Amino acid sequence: MKNDNDRMAVSVCIPAYNEESTIESTISSVLKQTIAEEADLEILVGANGCSDRTVEMVASLEREHPGIVRLLDIDQKGKPNAWNTLRSEAAHDVLIFMDGDVQANPGAVRHLYDTLFERDDLVLVQAMNAARMKHTSRLTRWSRPPANDGEDTLVTTWQDTICGRMYGVRNDRLTSLMRRAGLEMMPNALIHEDAWLRCVLDTMASRDRGIPLERVFRGEGRYWEVCPKSLVYFVPQDWKEDGLIMARNLHAREQLAELFPEYEATRLRLRSQQQSLSVRRVRRWARKLLTTSPLELAGMFPRRLLKAVSKRRAQRAYRGHKNAGSEISAQNWIRSESSRVSAGQK
Question: Does the pTM of the predicted model rise above 0.85?
Answer without folding.
Answer: no
